[in-house]
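new request in #modeling-help
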Amino acid sequence: MSTSPTAPSAPVRLLICDDHAVVRAGLLALLGSAPDIEVVGEAGSGAEAVALAGRLVPDVVLMDLQLGPGIDGVEATRRITAPRDGAPYVLVLTTYDTDADITRAIEAGATGYLLKAERPEELFAAIHSAAQGRTALSPPVAGRVMARMRSPRPVLTARELDILGQLARGLGNRDIARALFISEATVKTHLGRIYDKLGVDTRAGAVAVAKEQRLLP
Amino acid sequence: MSTSPTAPSAPVRLLICDDHAVVRAGLLALLGSAPDIEVVGEAGSGAEAVALAGRLVPDVVLMDLQLGPGIDGVEATRRITAPRDGAPYVLVLTTYDTDADITRAIEAGATGYLLKAERPEELFAAIHSAAQGRTALSPPVAGRVMARMRSPRPVLTARELDILGQLARGLGNRDIARALFISEATVKTHLGRIYDKLGVDTRAGAVAVAKEQRLLP
DNA sequence: TGCGGGGTCAACCGATCGGATGACCCCGGT
DNA sequence: ACCGGGGTCATCCGATCGGTTGACCCCGCA
């Protein structure tokens, strides 16, 4: 656009990825009729999206984050946007505006993050923005990103997430220790730090917060 | 159909309800082109759906369960299907196949329960089924309903849910007792029963199961 | 009238937790 | 070479939890 203001830009080549066939069909019906958008393919799983992105060389991949079993939207985004020639831009289109989701998607290389609640016109605009590598965020998402900057969220280490996972199964310290091949003392040390980071002081509270923030699978 | 096999049936009058504008637009594009379906309106909230259902007298309401703030899909379904003349059938179209969601939707009067992961053809078929009051369930949903029949789900009493709610805040027995104006002994009694019903034996496990089954708001 | 379910309370005991402190190791970055 | 963060382990103690048993009350239902 900035390079050729006179020539009518070619339609944006779009790849749709969503595990819900109905939603996929709906998006296809909605976007397929737009003159400046060409839907070159659709994927129902992360693996399929990665494969098609390589084969169809789309300009933009419209990516849902919730993709059922197999690799998820974040991982698919990471692979699709892996540095190489002509890597497509990924525009995340999802339901949730959870902090963790947004962070992970952006870290994985997403160019934009749109909510399905957005107006269709915003979607059209975002697709064209993404095609040029410009970031497009839904207002609620943008708000959360700002908030995040102001007060960073607790970041648990991988090991702490291990402990938390066992904790959510209702295991006692001894069993957690056995499950992770460490001593009970170590478990207690980790738990203490987890309590600190999550701002709680009981195991039940930790599990509640963890589930709330979707820290666990 | 069974009454007039020769006359081409009139198109099914359909009302779409989904809080996600993009999804709504997609469904409209998808279903609006079907010759035997007439989309007579769309709603972005439960309240709007109830109002439009009364005004537009559709044959079928396509209802998402997750509707953001305000009355949810279940409550909207309940009101729309309230016994009266010409009450439309409600076909639930949602993402989740949680036991609790299914149960609540059916109890509220839903005629069918379809997952968005279903193939679009199934959606068309389900809409026509619903128009005649015939039940249509996605296979995973049907499976869960069957499973439910075989092993009924733990049903916590209101009081037990109170205790569980406080538990999820990470409170100790003493604080739970104070919060609910009962003795610590009573709290322990309730907790014991909750453990039994949820099949766990620790507070952390109880919270995990509760969050998993969406037993708490 | 009796029965059962739900809610409340008590007392007891062993097991576990929460918190604090100090220590060691390994690794990556300055 | 030094330092800091992450992971590991140990020990101590008071507080809390989990499990059990038994009891009382109220209410709806047979």
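bot summary: Strands of chain A lie at 12-17, 37-43, 60-63, 89-94, 112-115, 136-137.
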